[in-house]
Structure formats: C-alpha cells, structure tokens
Amino acid sequence: MILKTFKDKVVLITGSSRGIGKTTALTMAKKGASIMLNGRNLKKLLEVEKSIKDIGGKVSFFCCDISDQNQAKELVDYTIKIFGKLDVLINNAGVSMRGNFSELNPEVFRAVFDVNVFGSVNTSIHAIPHIRKSKGSVVFVSSVAGIRGLPNNSAYCSSKMALRAIAESIRIEEVNSNIHVGLIFVGITEIEKEKTTIDKDGALIILRDRAKRNVQTLAQVASSIVNNIKKRKFRTTLTGLGRLNAFLQPILPDLVERILIRSNKKIEEKCL
Ligand SMILES: NC(=O)c1ccc[n+]([C@@H]2O[C@H](COP(=O)([O-])OP(=O)(O)OC[C@H]3O[C@@H](n4cnc5c(N)ncnc54)[C@H](OP(=O)(O)O)[C@@H]3O)[C@@H](O)[C@H]2O)c1
Description:
It is a single chain. With 272 residues, the chain is an alpha/beta fold. The protein has a single domain, classed as NAD(P)-binding Rossmann-like Domain (Rossmann fold). It has eight helices and nine strands. Strands 3-2-1-4-5-6-9 form a seven-stranded parallel beta sheet, sandwiched between helices. Helix 1 packs across helix 6, helix 3 packs parallel to helix 4 and helix 4 runs parallel beside helix 5. The longest helix has 29 residues. The chain is globular, with a radius of gyration of 18 Å. The mean pLDDT is 94. The protein binds NADP nicotinamide-adenine-dinucleotide phosphate. The site of NADP nicotinamide-adenine-dinucleotide phosphate has 31 residues, from helix 1, strand 2, helix 4 and strand 5.
C-alpha cells in the first residue's frame, strides 16, 4: 500500500541502482514519493524501476556518472523535465577503498573524491535552486568513517569528512531559504552481493559478505535517512559505535586514537 507521508514529493537519489540507495528509493516510494533513480548500471536501474512500479509507485531513472559535471546537471534537468520540480536530493552514491596511505596509488584518492565529493557537489549545486523553490531537503550520506580518520581508509574518511564541511557551509548559507540540510553518518551496514571497493593499486575488488551480527540492515539505514528528512534534522549518527565515536572524538581524541591503534594491531594479527 502506498502511504501519503511523501505524497507529491519528488525525490532524487544518486546511486540508487543497488544497496542503501535502492532500499531508500523503495522505502520512499512506499510512502508516496515520486522517485528519480540514478546509477551507471542500466540493467540494475531497470530492475529497481520495475520493483517500484510493481508496488504502484511513481518512478523514472537517469543512467549517468555523477562525477561528470555535465551528466550531473543533466540528471537534475531530467528530474525537472519528468516531474516538474525537485523536493529532496539524497547524495548517496559512493565508493570505498582500502590500503595503507603510503602504499596507495594517488589515483585511488582521485577516484574516491571524484564520486564521493565531486559527485555530491556536481549534483547539489544544480539541485539547490530547485530545492529552494520547494523548501525541500538536500541530504549527504556520509559515514562514521567521516567522524575521524581510520587506518587503511584515508581517502574514504577524508572524502566523507569533506561532506560534513560542505553540509555545514550550506546550512549557514541557506539559513534564509528554509531548506533542510541533512548529514547522515552511516555505520557498518549489510552489503549487496558483489559490492566492490577500490584496492591500493586502483583495481576494483569484490567485498566479502559481512556477518549479519554487528551490522545494520539496509532497511534500518533507509528508515533513518527517511526519518532525517521527515524531521528535518541536521545530523543523524547511526549505530552505537558511531554515536560513541562522535561523542568521544571531540573530547578525548587521544583515547580514541589509542583504542584504534590497539584494535588495528588485532586486525593485522588476525589477517596474518
Ligand atoms: N554499506 C556500508 O557499510 C556503508 C557505511 C557507511 C557509509 N556508506 C555510504 O552509503 C552510501 C551507499 O553505500 P552502499 O553500501 O549502498 O554502496 P553500493 O552498494 O556499492 O552502492 C553504491 C551506489 O553508488 C552508485 N555509484 C557509484 N559511483 C557512481 C557514479 N560515479 N555515478 C553514479 N552512481 C554511482 C552505484 O551505482 P552503479 O554501480 O550503477 O553506478 C550504486 O548504486 C555510500 O555513499 C557509502 O559510502 C555505506
């Protein structure tokens, strides 16, 4: 059954061909929103479009790479062409990486920033004038890895920290336009099969499935994103570990670092 919570609201979700973006798209469609899907994988976009149509939802998609400025602009323009307005932009598309900083091919940093930072920037700059008109929301999907730097994740952590600075700047700039700016620090979440990450040399590798305990479900994360938008909250930090990190980092950064050094050693020992 389609609810009325987001009736007449147009929601653009980058990176909604799979994972958190796809689940958020389905959740918002069930609540009455018209959804613009995005990703680069046409086959997967068609599958998500069908799932939303099957439940009676309103949906369209635009297959493009948001790290390209022109394509990101076309995505926003296409949303306006199809639905006539834009109420909510969820900057969800993202890529992760792994590898010790000193061993990284610098192109890994570029690849991560191209999607996580420039993809969000490219889309948001074109979307904000439309969101001002609807007094809607622009939401950034960051990570608990964006609260403080973590080992083997320097490019990912710094890209997700950049989203925080961007969101904080926009909030002040837009204080008189009454738009909502949301920032979600997502914790470790279940992943779809064949989710990839960028290895230290730049190669894409498939992640191993995650044990079900200690991870949030895609549905839990989607529901927190929807709640952030509904309540027009600024920060939403997910998982107990994420909230503990957000609390301790500003007041006891040395303690957090000691804990991380110890747990990093344990992880290294287990991997050997
Ligand atoms: N899963 C976690 O544990 C976790 C934790 C913290 C934060 N997050 C954040 O949550 C977001 C979603 O994560 P996820 O686990 O759902 O990832 P995922 O399953 O790998 O999905 C990523 C999505 O981004 C899209 N994408 C990647 N590059 C793109 C580009 N250049 N242009 C357009 N779309 C692009 C992918 O679509 P195509 O392949 O079709 O292009 C896909 O739909 C990311 O920002 C991630 O950093 C995830």
